[in-house]
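Why does residue order matter? Because the sequence determines the fold. Keep that principle in mind as you read this record.
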Amino acid sequence: MTDERIEKTKSAIESAENIPADRKAELLDLLSKLKPAIAKVETHHEDARSIARLVEASAQETDRCESLAYSCAPEEANLRSKNSAVAR
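Structure:
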């Protein structure tokens, strides 16, 4: 719910002639508590998105490193055997 929509709802409550004053006060109080609650949810949603992106990037980097280690392993083995032959 956007700020604009909350403001429209607030205006509708304030201008409603069929709602008793005490009920209007209660509704407006609830509406004022809604805005911070929505902000918290939106923040948590963004945090969750950020965490998901970081996890995905970490998984891709791990996969890349494992692929590189696997593809480099035969070359390292060849290099070690050449170094062993030179040392003899």
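The CA atoms of residues 35 and 54 lie 29 Å apart.
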